[in-house]
Amino acid sequence: MILTREESIFLLVLVLNLVIALAYFIYGTIIAAPVKTRKRKGETEVLRDNRRTYLIRFLVMVLCPVVGILFFLVSQFLYLTIFRFGVNLDDVTFKKDRVETQVKANEEVERNVIPVEEAIAVNDKKSLRTAMMSIIRGEMDGSMSSIALALDAEDSETAHYAASVLSDKLNEFRMNVRKMYAKIQEESSDQTECEEELIGYMNHLLKEKIFTELEQNGFVRMMEEAAEILYNKNASKLTAEHYEGVCLRLMETEDFEKAEKWCNRMVEHIPEELCTYTCRLKLYFTLRDRTAFFKTLDSLKKSDVVIDSETLEMIRIFS
Question: For labelling, which of 98, 164, 171, 299 has a CA lying 20 to 30 Å from the CA of 182?
Fold first, then answer.
């Protein structure tokens, strides 16, 4: 059988490709791999450039004539010219206190847990009990309002769980507040630790609004009094979180006069904080003071303060 010129060239390419691939495989398995294995004597296993690697490359070259060889040649060229240089890690430090452990979610459990509000709405006893137990077993901070909702559940066992947990938590809060407030009265004029701790501690639970209206108002007055003492002692110790907590809690109790006083103090002491603008916007919106509201909104848009998504949405609405 006489082959055409094209068929002869094609056959020649295949033969040359096979010869090159075979030569590469023999070189790698007999010479290169043993040498690299001896250099890495201390390693239990050589993960790169071992005999298995050369076998895989040989099969790729045979199954992909010309293209396979070109691929490995280009890869080797890029490695030698670009990726061969090591990374300088002299300025990089690794500390344990920077590491955050990512705990894998328990999907099997969480897949079957629905929010307390939904479970109450549909009167699903099993889901409600599961949600309550998940809250109780985990971190309850920030979940007290959900527990309070469960007090009205038709399921008596769930209501009992909620009442027990809520009662313990609120009694603990009342006792701690009394202790810290008593320590404030005993402090000297240059001590501010108790005031700082009390304001943050009270705000953390008061913002969930789980107390009766009378008790909530009483605690907010106590919180504002602690903030006033701290302001008179050393105003620089008041953080943006302290100011914002006091302002928002006062607005919730409709004590707008004191809320405005603290808003003005925020303008004086922390003018470049986002809460300085948002607290005033909420106050003026509640008081229906259009002039002051839009004046504050314009000031916020002209400032360099970083705006969160909620505030940005409000600006879009009123612009």
Answer: 164
What does the chain come to in residues?
A: 319
Q: How many whole angstroms separate alpha carbon 25 and alpha carbon 304?
A: 64
Could you tell me the pTM of the whole model? 0.55
**CA-wise closest residue to 149 among 168, 171, 173, 165:** 165
Cα 314 to Cα 291: distance, rounded to the nearest angstrom: 16
CA–CA distances in Å: residue 31 to residues 10, 20, 41, 75, 182: 31, 16, 16, 21, 82
| Residue 196: count of CB within 10 angstroms of its CB | 17
| Tokens found for residue 221 | 């007055």
Which CA distances in Å does 3 have to 6, 11, 239?
A: 8, 10, 89
Helix orientation angle between 274-287 and 240-252, rounded to the nearest 10 degrees: 10
Closest by Cα among 313, 238, 226 to 278: 313
